[in-house]
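[recover] target loaded
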């Protein structure tokens, strides 16, 4: 169908997300399934793939909806590279279907979407916006692509993430864990990048040295509480260990976690959801604010430079 369709504008999907971080809002908007996805039935129903066409069709429709309705996002490219968010989303979805080790099938899936991109009626066809959103697996196809994705997303989200942690106590614990994870990701790349060899270090790794993340973590209002809780949990685990447990032999396939053990974030209270909505509204506001709030979206040096295409 022609560009400028009656499909839900992607900006509305993005701004309507209840998530607080930009990368999470992007994923949430991409995954929404309003009825207007049927507008792309004709283009996607015969997508050429070797296997699992039925699973590739929804990905194709959501991808075309983004291309067809996200033109207002073009101004955001001066702040951070939305094409990386898009290609990581595509890689996530396609690797879920074929397995992240099945490079041949993943590449074939990207090739199928490239053909869809080529046949879709844009105007003008050579618009840099559409060219930038071409499905490009070479940007994200690395053995440690999930670490690279996290490294990029942390710096897209960091300013909002940290400011939210300072202002809103109710979200502080969640943000504490996110920054702790960021410390681990940077430590992973530090070891990889400083070890002599053939490893291709992402250009964005130098951003890990621009902020002392452990210092930033200590600025959070909940830092002392979270550290005390961590120590308490650690001591509790030790005190509840039965005598002589350390001397028992491990199972042949290694230690196992109890089946009931799960992540600490399994749900949200209405109060927390309300706070997240306030955070989103206070940060994003109306559309013009989103397009001009460079202080929040800024990830210096990512876009518009020669290193952007090789970033991850």
């Amino acid at each position: 169908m022609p560009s400028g369709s009656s499909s839900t504008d992607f900006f509305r999907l993005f701004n309507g997300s209840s998530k607080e971080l930009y990368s999470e809002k992007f994923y949430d908007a991409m995954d929404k399934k309003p009825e207007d996805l049927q507008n792309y039935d004709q283009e996607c129903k015969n997508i050429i793939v070797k296997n699992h066409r039925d699973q590739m069709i929804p990905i194709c429709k959501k991808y075309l909806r983004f291309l067809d309705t996200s033109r207002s996002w073009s101004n955001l490219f001066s702040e951070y590279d939305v094409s990386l968010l898009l290609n990581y989303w595509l890689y996530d979805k396609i690797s879920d279907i074929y397995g992240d080790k099945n490079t041949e099938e993943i590449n074939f899936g990207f090739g199928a979407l490239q053909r869809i991109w080529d046949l879709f009626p844009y105007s003008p066809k050579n618009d840099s916006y559409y060219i930038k959103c071409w499905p490009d697996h070479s940007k994200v196809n690395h053995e440690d692509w999930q670490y690279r994705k996290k490294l990029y997303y942390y710096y897209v989200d960091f300013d909002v993430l940290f400011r939210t942690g300072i202002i809103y106590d109710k979200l502080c614990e969640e943000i504490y864990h996110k920054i702790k994870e960021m410390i681990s990701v940077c430590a992973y790349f530090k070891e990889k990048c400083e070890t002599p060899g053939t490893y291709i270090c992402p250009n964005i790794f130098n951003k890990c040295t621009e902020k002392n993340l452990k210092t930033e973590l200590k600025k959070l209002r909940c830092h002392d509480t979270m550290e005390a809780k961590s120590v308490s949990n650690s001591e509790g685990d030790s005190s509840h260990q039965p005598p002589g447990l350390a001397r028992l032999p491990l199972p042949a396939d290694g230690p196992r976690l109890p089946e009931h053990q799960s992540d600490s974030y399994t749900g949200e209270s209405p109060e927390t959801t309300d706070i997240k909505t306030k955070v989103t509204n206070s940060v994003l506001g109306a559309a013009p604010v989103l397009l001009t709030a460079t202080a929040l979206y800024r990830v210096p040096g990512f876009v518009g430079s020669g290193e952007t295409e090789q970033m991850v």
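[recover] notes: The radius of gyration is 22 Å.
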